[in-house]
Write a structure and sequence with these properties.
With 359 residues, the chain is mostly helical. The protein has helices at residues 4-24, 34-53, 56-66, 77-102, 108-125, 134-144, 150-178, 196-220, 228-237, 242-269, 273-290, 295-313, 320-345, 348-358. The protein has one domain (31-358).
Length: 359
């Protein structure tokens, strides 16, 4: 017994050091710098045009549509283009479904949940590169809470589609350039038929369920902009393992907390449209450079980027400290629900019960 306490303390210390190492470890990356540059151009050009024409709302909306560029795979040219064009069509459809739910408020949660389930199934089946269903759900949620009438909705949908189409054009020229120096990889095969239920259907149902629960919790708490909560939930729950989900949750909260400080400075000192457009372009480049190396570091840039885009595309009165506090609360709530969802997602007993029920 006297030897148990030192052993316990050493085990606890080893566990703490292991967790700290997981949180601060920098991952290697062979991502070419041209890809972050292309993503920054696709997202930044609509913002620069918005500043030129004095219409930052539509500029930000087109930039969100342009985020389809992050789904370009490392395959042959024809497969790259088909994939990105299919993703663009899906993003436009998701935004349209979100706008449809805007006019039927009780349908918001079911539509966002359904989109999360269907898009996650597609991403699992076609082995879509990260961030997987994240931007599709984000587009749906922003469309669901955008104010305006039917005429405004059709205009916004057209602007969103133009942003996605512009990103496809940028992808084409990026592919022509990068394939001259980098050999393409083979396309990932879909899951085996016997794995479809487990890998595709069950994962999608659990993820969609917790995305819907997070939105329901945000609405129950009467949060001003509840769509931030399911987006944070989805970003966390997608970890490849329970440890990855835990690390993603901790890194997202830490990175968000630091990123909110950056956001506060941008909101306070970069209110000029041109400054916002340049900030979005620079932040996008930083995110795409850092995301494959360390998620918490990338979250420092993700937080101000998403807030600038979403707040500009959906005008509101909140700003400064109130905006910072609201977004941090949304992130913590969504990350916690995403962690609970990750426990269920990687719990074999829960998955077996769900599988028996589905069969």
């Amino acid at each position: 017994m006297p030897q148990a306490k030192p052993s316990s303390r050493s085990s606890l210390g080893a566990a703490a050091r292991r967790e700290l190492h997981e949180l601060i470890a920098i991952n290697p990356s062979d991502r070419p710098w041209e890809l972050p540059f292309a993503v920054a151009m696709a997202a930044g050009l609509p913002m620069l045009l918005g500043a030129w024409f004095g219409d930052m709302v539509h500029g930000a909306l087109a930039s969100i549509g342009a985020m389809v560029i992050v789904y370009v795979p490392r395959t042959r040219l024809e497969h790259r283009m088909v994939t990105v064009m299919a993703a663009a069509f899906a993003m436009i459809a998701c935004y349209a479904f979100g706008q449809l739910s805007q006019f039927i408020p009780p349908a918001r949660a079911p539509i966002i949940t359904g989109v999360a389930v269907i898009v996650t199934m597609a991403c699992r089946y076609y082995r879509v590169v990260p961030p997987g269903p994240l931007f599709f759900v984000l587009a749906t949620a922003i469309g669901a809470y955008a104010p305006g009438d039917v005429a405004d909705a059709t205009t916004r949908l057209g602007v969103f589609a133009l942003g996605s189409i512009g990103a496809v054009i940028v992808v084409f020229f990026y592919n022509l350039h990068i394939l001259r120096s980098r050999d393409p990889l083979p396309a990932s095969p879909p899951p085996l038929p016997e794995d479809l239920l487990d890998v595709v259907v069950i994962d999608a149902l659990i993820i969609g369920l917790f995305v819907g629960l997070s939105l329901g919790a945000a609405q129950l708490l009467a949060l001003e902009k509840p769509y931030w909560v399911p987006v944070s939930c989805l970003a966390v729950i997608q970890g490849a393992s329970l440890r990855a989900v835990w690390n993603r949750q901790a890194q997202r909260i830490i990175g968000t907390l630091i990123g909110l400080g950056v956001t506060w400075g941008l909101v306070r000192y970069a209110a000029d449209p041109w400054a916002v457009a340049v900030a979005v372009t620079a932040l996008t480049f930083c995110v795409e450079t850092a995301i494959v190396r360390h998620y918490a570091f990338a979250a420092i840039f993700i937080t101000p980027l998403t807030i600038l885009l979403a707040e500009a595309s959906i005008p509101g009165e909140a700003g400064g400290s109130a905006l910072i506090a609201a977004r941090f609360a949304d992130t913590v709530l969504g990350s916690f629900i995403g962690l609970v969802g990750g426990v269920c997602l990687h719990n074999s007993a829960f998955r077996q019960r769900l599988k028996r029920w589905l069969r």
